[in-house]
Amino acid sequence: MGNVTNSEKWSARARLVYIERIAYWRGSLRRADISKHFGVSVPQASADIAEYLRINPDSLDYDRSAKRYVAAKGYAPKLWNPEVDDGFVFAQGSEASTEDKVTRIDLPNRHVSLPALRALVRAVSENESLRIYYYSVNSGTAGWRWITPRAFANDGYRWHVRAWCFEDNAYKDFVLGRIEKIGEARPAESLPTDNDWDTWVTVKFKANPALSSIQQQAVQLDFAMRKGVGSLRVRKALMLYTLVYLGLAEPESAKHRRLELVSG
Fold first, then answer.
1. Which of 16, 87, 214, 217 has the smallest CB count inside 10 Å?
2. What would the pLDDT profile of 161-192 be if each residue is shown by its tens digit?
3. What are the angstrom distances between the C-alpha of 57 and each of 77, 186, 194?
4. At 185, which CATH number?
5. Could you list the residue range(s) of the whole structural domain that residue 233 is in?
6. pTM of the entire predicted model
7. Helix or strand or coil: residue 163?
8. What angle do CA 69, 44, 70 make, to 5 degrees?
9. Is 144 exposed, middle or buried (0-12, 13-18, 19+ CB in 10 A)?
10. Structural domain ending residue among the three candidates 165, 192, 219
């Protein structure tokens, strides 16, 4: 009996999705692509392609001269939804390639202590309060304080824990990298509702009118604006981080901005 592919099995499903990803991003594939990536035999790779064509008929054409399958005109995936980051995975090429085709700028490492993170995750899960030793840039102080962690948030650069601070009697954001030590834990007491965390607001922005017409069109394309306006739905507690990320938080830099807030 020849090789067959059962699309209901997880391992086979993964191979079928891989076929779809290659066909979508590169436009063509060979049986060896599947065989090499998953460590299966070439006959099994052939069976996988046959099963894929059963699921998505007429999606691939076989190029005999090049000995490869080519995505048909108007090719559309059936098993998977394309995402931008996945495209860069395939742009890099072979896993064994030594040529860097995709890279990122190096940014300073925002340290997070694994023991501290583990304690915080457990505190959120078990509804506990924790004593932490924290360094505050705003107050210029360091010391022990009790907090009740509720959630985690990333501002695009670093991780914070959203927590009730017993020292300030308010919900605050604590940068994970500034938590040096973890002390004892205790059951959390009843606390006020975190209204800023629970409230969602919409931030609307447009290209800075001081830019030229071409520059404004470029910014509109860059931020995928609709009818000249972009929008983001964010938690009220994270509003300032959003404005910082968009370059809208510092009033003195207004004339150099690419964006401007839309009022109303």
1. 214
2. 999 999 999 999 999 999 999 999 999 999 99
3. 11, 60, 52
4. 2.30.30
5. 199-261
6. 0.72
7. strand
8. 5
9. exposed
10. 192
